[in-house]
Amino acid sequence: MEFTRFDHDQASDAEFDEVARFLASMDAADRPGWSSRSATALADFLKNRQSFGYDVSLWLGSEASGGAERLTASCWLNLALSPENRQTVLVEIRVRPDLRRRGIASDFLRALTPMIRVAERDHVIGSTTSHGPGELWGASVGMKPTLRYVRQVLRLGDADQSLWDRPVPDGYRFEDWTDRTPDRLVASYAVALQAMDDAVSGDLQWSQPRWTPERVRETEERLAATGNAARVVAAVDEASGEVAGLTQIAVSATRPEVVEQLDTSVRREHRGRGLGLAMKAAQLRAIAERPGLERVKTDTADLVHMAAINRALGFQDESEDVYIEADLAEIEAALATDS
Predict the structure, then answer these.
(1) In terms of Cα–Cα distance, which of 220, 240, 222, 214 is closest to 232?
(2) pLDDT mean by block of 10 residues, the chain; 339 residues
(3) 3-state DSSP: the chain helix, strand, coil percent, rounded to 5?
(4) DSSP classification of residue 108
(5) Upper half-sphere CA count for residue 287 (Cβ side, 13 Å)
(6) Architecture field, domain 154-319
(7) Which domain of life is it from (predicted)?
């Protein structure tokens, strides 16, 4: 069994097609109905791998079979770039369903640990299906569950759009933009982003960014340079003229069929007035007009409040997942014992 980094700069179209089909086959097995990346979208994602605050790489497992190489496993390896999480790497190892429970995932992780050391990361976070085989495997390599969350999807073809008819709460107006926050709002927009500090985080060792107007601009410029976009709906307090809350979606230039819900946050002093539901409904009314759009994806660890808001807008639960994590030294010790 060999584990190598997928060289997207040198890969041919045929190789991208093969890898995209392989990843889609595992999505079909583990996340039926989930939207997989096409070969073109995969190439774009890897080309712009630092768009969303991570240095992303794709690693593949393969073995000889009948005189040819066949793919057996994959790993997304994401190095966090934010100063608050520079010690952390995110990993998602997946093995072909017919090859599971043979130690491939452990061998894969063992092969990656030297590279993680070289990258000067000492904390590892993974994700897998909650209470499933992946969580049990995580325990065998020293990783503990720290935060459970639900993946949800809205299929526009089946959506009841009347669920999006939500009024703007009294005392607020909604503004929306793509890519660049208006200068007059950027300072209070940064404050509203910081309200994510209150998001449900369980025992997850992950820190929210320290948002400033300058950091907002840096993030916007990095995303715009990739050809992708972030669309924002913000609730503005009429009395103060400041952003009270916001909801964001990511729009990919090469995946017109799907958009991904990012953060939704409301400043503490404005909570309890229905802003979250109303902002997300306004966002859906706007993006539903996008040509070719089929799905909106999201996930949330707020299994009570935010998950219920999403369901009220027509989202359906796709899977219940969990973050598992450990210090790299703990993983190395567990793998040494297992070898």
Answers:
(1) 220
(2) 94 96 91 82 84 87 86 96 94 94 96 96 96 95 97 95 98 96 98 94 93 95 84 98 97 87 96 97 95 94 95 95 97 89
(3) 35, 30, 30
(4) H
(5) 34
(6) 3-Layer(aba) Sandwich (3.40)
(7) Bacteria
